[in-house]
Amino acid sequence: MKNQATTKVSSSTSLSAGILLGTLLLGTGGSSFSSATSVDRSYNPQSAIINNNLTISLEKDKQQNNSALEFQKLSLQLMEMYGFSIKQYSEIMKVTRATIYKWHDLNTPLKKVQSKNLNRLNILNNSLVGIHSNRKNLLGSWLKTPLDNDVLSTREILESNAINKEDIIELLSKVNLGLKSMEMSNELDELLGIS
Fold first, then answer.
1. What is the pLDDT, as a whole number, of residue 37?
2. What is the pTM of this model?
3. Is the dihedral of CA 87, 89, 91, 94 positive or negative?
4. 163, part of any domain
5. pLDDT value of residue 30
6. How many separate domains does the chain show?
7. d(CA 40, CA 38)
8. Closest CA to 155 of 77, 85, 71
9. Which pLDDT belongs to residue 109?
10. Which domain holds residue 185?
């Protein structure tokens, strides 16, 4: 009986040590990768992505310092290029309007960018390139058209939690047609002096 109790205690201790060691070696399940670090022991470098967050730390490597700033610039360019309002863009990016303002303040570099935001921005950037270049800035205005079924389906896809590049690309022909129609309507309004 005493051997069984000792076995249970040592099994429990071994299991705890195994879980601890596994957690230390494998992490908590979040994605991570290590960047090249120097052997200099006087500073404590961090990897670029830790637990699904793009962490920008005060490191000697300028590429990592620029990662968050590049995200900020791309985010601002994307919003302006497609004519999104802050409200629209925050709904598409699934963050608050305050977060968008913070992202677009280029005088205050971000310290970290969550990988879900980086991924969402990349999907938008890579899938919306199929919009005709002369009409890209009309997308935000077109998405405000309340009774157009193509607008409603486009907004649903852009604002969904699980954004899908293929779904966006599939809609691009309808989006381009809607934007062309809007452009022609705007031109007609200008000719008639309505706008």
1. 34
2. 0.64
3. negative
4. yes
5. 38
6. 1
7. 5
8. 85
9. 84
10. 44-192
Beta bridge partners of 2: none
HEC string for the chain: CHHHHHHHHHHHHHHHHHHHHHHHHHCCCCCCECCCCCCCCCCCCCCCEECCEEECCCCCCHHHHHHHHHHHHHHHHHHHHCCCCHHHHHHHHCCCHHHHHHHCCCCCCCCEEEHHHHHHHHHHHHHHHHCCHHHHHHHHHHCCCCCCHHHHHHHHHHCCCCCCHHHHHHHHHHHHHHHHHHHHHHHHHHHHCCC
As to burial, measured by CB atoms within 10 angstroms (0-12 exposed, 13-18 middle, 19+ buried), residue 182 is middle
Residues 6+ apart with CB under 8 A from 95: 117
Give domain status of residue 22, yes or no: no
- 30 lies in some domain: no
Mean pLDDT by runs of 10 across the 195 residues of the chain is 46 40 38 36 33 39 66 94 96 96 91 91 93 94 92 95 93 95 91 82
Instruction: Identify the burial level of 154 via C-beta atoms within 10 angstroms of its C-beta, where 0-12 means exposed, 13-18 middle and 19 or more buried.
Output: buried
Whether residue 126 is contained in a domain is answered as yes
